Structure formats: C-alpha cells, structure tokens
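Researcher: Quick one. two chains, 471 residues in total.
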Amino acid sequence: MSADSNSEDLKSGSDEMLKVDNSNLSGWERKESRLKIFHVLFLSAVGAIVAITALTLTALGNPANMGFCVACFLRDIAGAVGLHSAAMVQYVRPEIIGIVLGAFIFAFARKEFKPKGGSAPVTRFVLGLAMMMGALIFLGCPLRMLLRISAGDLNAIVGLFGLVAGIFVATLFLKKGFSLKRNYDQGKLEGSLLPIAALILLGIVLFAPVILLFSIEGPGSMHAPLLIALAAGLAIGALGFASRLCFTGGIRDAILMKKIPPMLWAFVALLVVAFVGNLILGTFNLGFADQPIAHTDGLWNFLGMTLVGFSATLLAGCPFRQLVLAGSGNPDSVMAVAGMIAGAALMHNFNMASSPAGIGENAVYGFIVIAVIVVSIAVCNTFFDRAQL
Amino acid sequence: MGNYIATFYSHFGALSLYKELQAAGVRAEMMSVPRKLSSSCGICVSFDCDDVGAARTFADAGIELEGLYQAHDAGFAVILQN
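Model:
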C-alpha cells in the first residue's frame, strides 16, 4: 500500500486502519500512555489467572508444582503415543490440547487467524528440540520454573539465573544481526493442521484410549479430571493468545530495550498469587532438598535453563508461547513444538532426562552436542548470509 | 509532525533503525509492538517525523522491515507492508 492511499484509508475507515479513540496526535500519545496502564493491568490479571488455574489443577490431581508445564506435558504426550518408553511419564495431557484449541478458537473468533510460516522450519525444529532438552535437564519449562519458585523451591531460583543468562547471551546475537528471516502468508489449512491433530488426539482419548499408553504410577499417573484440565487449557490458550504471554520474551525485551516491559508484570503477578496460594494450601516448602519432581544439582539446573533461555530467544518465544502460536496458525511454531516432542523422546530414550535423583546418565554428552549445535545456529544466522549457507 | 511505528521481521531490524534515528537526532523509542497491529510478539520503533515521505525514507532503509504505520486520530493507518 502506498503512502498516497493513506489518507483515503483514513477517510474510508478501511479494514487496514485500526481504530483507537483519539482526537489528535498528541492525544494518541496520551491514549497510548493510558493503554500501557491497561496493558499492565491486563497482563497482571493474566499472570494471576494462570497461577490460580495452575494451583487448582494441582489441587485436583496434577503433580506438585506442575499445574502447568508445557515441556513436561508434551513429554507425557510423547510417552502416551509411544515415542518413548519411560513408564512413569505417559499421559495425554488435556491441558496441551486445550491450549492449542483455545488459541485457535480465539484467533479465529477475533479474525486474527492468518497463518504465516516458512521461516527456517528445520532450524526451528532443532531449536525446539534443544529447548526441550534443556527443560528436561532442569525438569520444567519457564512456566513451571516460576511455579516452583512460588512454592519455595530454591533450585528453581538457580534455574532462573540460568534462564536469564541464556537470554542475555542470545540477545548479543540478536544485536549483531541474528535472524531466521521473514515468514510468508500460508493457507488456512496449513495453519489448521495442529488444531485438527489436537482434536483427533482428544477423540482418541475419549473413544479409544486403549491404544494409548498411560502411566499407572509416577507423575504421569497424576492428573486433574479430563474435562476440567481441558477447560483450563482452553482458557489459558485463549488468554495466552490475547495477551501474547511469553516467559522469555519479557526478559529479552527488558534487556534489549533497557526498560521494564509490561510483560514482566505478568511474571510478578503469577509469582505473588501462586506464592500466596501455596501458603494458603500449605504447599509452600522453602529449601533445596525434598522438592517435588526436582533435583538439587545446581550446575545442571543452571545450564538446563540456560539452554532453554538461549534457544527460546532465538525462536522468539518460550515453550508456552510456541504452543499458543502453533495453535493460532503459525506453522513455524508447529515445527518448534514438533522439535520439543522429538526432544522429549530423545531425552528419555537415551537416558538423558533428569529425575529427582539427578541428571540422566548421558545428559552431559547430550548437552554438549546440542549446545554446539545451537551456538552454531546462532553464529551461522548472525554472521553469514543465510541464503549463501 | 506525525508519529510512526515501524515493525520488523527481526529484532536486529528494529535495533538498527532505532540507532539510525538516534544518530539523525529523531525522537525515537523502542517498544513492544502494539497488540492492535500484530498478534505476534516482538519490538518495534516508534518515531516522530515531519511527513510521511521522510518516515518512509527512514523505514525503507531499515533491515527486514515488516510494516510502517502512522498513528492518527482515527487509529493506525498502513503506510506500507512488506
């Protein structure tokens, strides 16, 4: 669209012009200021809702400090469909199906379902895989890390430092020119495939669960009632899309813009509400030892989340954000989610995933290999012309 | 004087334009992309310019530019989209 057509658009009120109620330019700036306050309040409310929902799901049966964990839940689904054979972590988590469908429905209802993709899909698959490897070394995605912190798990504080370190290093590459290059418009069918797959999986759970694998002990056997978990996922998926909630993007933006972005208020609200909730429920337990589904190896708690922060920043979104984007019609994020599922299978099939006893037997080797790969991805997409590689 | 918002496919694009505008003495600010402009996350550059032509000149020189919008009394008007 040319500049010449600009005034016509304004007069005609075409679809490309997005309305806000201002009377002049300086007025727009004043309105923008008020919108920022509203945005902060909205994000704080979203953080609080996520916290309350997570605590509720835990109270109704989900594993401790795991009301929501995108990495753990995708790992459980990978197990349920036979991609790995770790018997204690196999279950089709309805929360994941709900998040995908919630984001899809909300995007569609808001007429924001506009699939775009084609930006380095294989690279995104590998970065998603790396993100899952880091999460399964730490034992949780950034969302679960916050939930663990709110319950007094000090190992997760170590993980938070690692996450920030990973994001910081990745921003150095962003500042030097890192890019996975632009995306392009895709067909609606392309953007609908993951939601369709989620619906099929839900159908199998409801009508043919016998073909799936379900844990009879361990974290996989612990879950909230299906319909409640599904409803929670739907709500959080819709809210995630509406708010653009991302547990690494806020930290990344703070580093890049050198100011506190509104997104950080969602983290604060989540932490405060979950902290108070844990106190009320009697599930707050301050310390390093004896924390639920966590280990005390500080180095690997740090490095695991460093890998998550680094990979997520290169992907422009944490595991939760990737799942929401995938549901809302972003094929590139579908590749990242597929990478996460493959990463979960790799971690358990090759004895690299952590357990409360510590990191997996082969985790060090796996970490070194994937660290070399993701740093190579960062270097190649920063200092070399991608088209020439 | 108008206020313009440039969005990019990469963070580097936003950072580069921001530095360029600062060097040119143009009032500019990096900010999260307004939700009304995009459901995707990321940062954009908000800056002031005398006219659309000057804003386009700055934006066209940007790296991986996604779009340029003018903040107006009736909302954001599309100047260009790549």
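Chain B touches chain A through 39 residues (CB under 8 Å).
Researcher: Thanks, that's what I needed.
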